[in-house]
Ferric-dicitrate binding protein FerR, regulates iron transport through sigma-19
Amino acid sequence: MDNKQHIPITEDLLAKYLAGEAGPEEAIAIDSWLEALPENRQTFDQLVKVWENATLSSYQKPDVDREWERFSQKQSPKKRTYTWLAVAASIVCLIAIYKLLPPGKRNPEIILLQAQKDISRDTLPDNSYVVMPPGSEITYPATFASRQIKLKGEGYFEVQPSSQSPFIVETDELKIQVLGTAFNVKTTPEQIIVQVNNGAVLVSSKTKTITLREGQGCIYNRASRTFDTVSIAENGRNNYAYATRELHFQHTSLSEVVRQVSKAYNVEIRLENEKTADCRISTTFENKSLSYVLDVITASLDLQYRTEGNVIYINGDECN
């Protein structure tokens, strides 16, 4: 039962997928398998129900026979095979094994990295790279064998590839899993935004898992607990320019340019003449200094800038 990429859909792979441990290529293979036949989707939906029942119940010795009977009663006789019994047993046992672990095994020593007033740039123990704007933080186990991170705020990650150990970023409601890629995660009280710069990631909530590839993003609505998948336009990459220092402007208003440059370089920029806010500019910056960026912007619009203390002021007449 192989998909286009010749990855066999086995009971172990489906159990990994439901546990949030499948890699991007494996998730893509399962997505193709689910789309191939309605029967595949029906079978998978029943397995999801078994998973949810196992995770929502308080722990007791797993009754695999009971869970399997509940699952198999909803299947046609042809599909009651030992293969799916193994999947159901694997899912229930995953929960049981975790809850039997001693507390010390569940909560190893935790490392905290915070970005306070400045943009933070750090290399993690596996040589992955993380950049955070002010007000953000990550925590992870000191051993880092699991390559699992918890994020508050916003972070841009360039992940060191490893076929043996997926890299996982958790927010309060989502899990983002990769093997090797670069992506940005931003959390707000209303939503969680994930954007993929290159590679592919899995994004999982409690009820759904989606795959994002290079140039794609998703917006998770906290209130409705739903995903919207979007394509990232070139200027959409400005959202994580604080990490890449790459800015793309196409007929963009000066007020928006100022907002994005301010975030990318963690500075305060003010327009002294409000009439210049709607001036338009088209240009691209790739890893340039702040002074270079300001020189180009102001020269292009026949404006001037000056620095007073920690604030940069842009002034001049309104644009034609």
Q: What stands out?
A: Residues 1-5, 55-62, 74-85, 94-108 have pLDDT under 50 and may be disordered. Residues 249 and 257 are 7 Å apart (CA to CA).
